[in-house]
Amino acid sequence: MPIDESVAFRAVRIAVLTVSDTRGLAEDRSGDTLVARIEAAGHEVAERTILRDDADLIVTQLERWIVDPAIDCVITTGGTGVTGRDVTPEALERVATKMIPGFGELFRYLSFDKIGTSTIQSRATACVARSTYIFALPGSTGAVKDGWDGILASQLDIRHKPCNFVELMPRLTEA
User: Fold this and answer.
1) Cβ–Cβ under 8 Å, residues 72 and 13
2) Alpha carbon of 30 to those of 25, 141, 158, 166: distances in Å?
3) Rounded to two decimals, what is the model's pTM?
4) Which residues are paired to 50 by β-bridges?
5) 160/4 Cα distance (integer angstroms)
6) What integer pLDDT is reported at residue 162 of this predicted model?
7) Tens digits of per-residue pLDDT, 53-66?
8) Does the pLDDT value for residue 127 go beyond 70?
9) What is the pLDDT of residue 23?
10) Which end of the chain is more exposed for a tag (fewer CB within 10 A), N or C?
11) Is-contact 100 155, C-beta < 8 A?
12) Residues facing 45 on adjacent strands
């Protein structure tokens, strides 16, 4: 899709949350991949943390970021599968004002070209929580690349036409 060069780029302040029971910062390749892509696009990584697969912990962290005016968007990686410990989508539902079902649908469509029917195991999802976008990606580096390169890089660029998430930010809380 076209980029309107007459519109000034606007950096988005993004918090990155890795959800994992087994990874620390040194082993967080998907988080590293996401941070590298965010920064290469000209955006700001406002905060980064790793939490274990615990819905209450995830909700607490998301709530803190949702009310922080220095954070426009949260991108999570991990915890979107179908096992008992995968609880990221449930945590998002607890903080969501509005779900964005098309995000998960588009993610699985893009992912299908790479991993075939295994994409059905992904519960990638997104929502608006008050005035903050939250996008939940699976925990693999491939999934992070698919989600950022195929969706978020353009939707978090105000110059992307015909429309994008950034231009809607001032209107997310309107009544």
Assistant:
1) yes
2) 10, 4, 25, 24
3) 0.96
4) 18
5) 6
6) 95
7) 999 999 999 999 99
8) yes
9) 85
10) C
11) no
12) 14
- For the stretch 81-110, pLDDT in tens is 999 999 999 999 999 999 999 999 999 999
Can you tell me the distance from the alpha carbon of 59 to that of 1, in angstroms, rounded to the nearest whole number?
Answer: 34
Q: Which two tokens stand for residue 20?
A: 């994992």
Nearest Cα neighbor of 71 from 60, 80, 79, 62 is 62
Is residue 129 within 8 A of residue 62, CB to CB? The reply is yes
Residues with Cβ within 8 Å of residue 10, at least 6 apart in sequence: 158, 166
What's the confidence (pLDDT) of residue 59?
98
CB environment 112-126: b (16+ within 10 A), e (fewer): eeebeeebeebbbbb
Using one digit for the tens of pLDDT, what is the confidence trace for 15-43? 999 999 988 888 999 999 999 999 999 99
Q: Which phi and psi (to 5°) does residue 4 adopt?
A: -85, 100
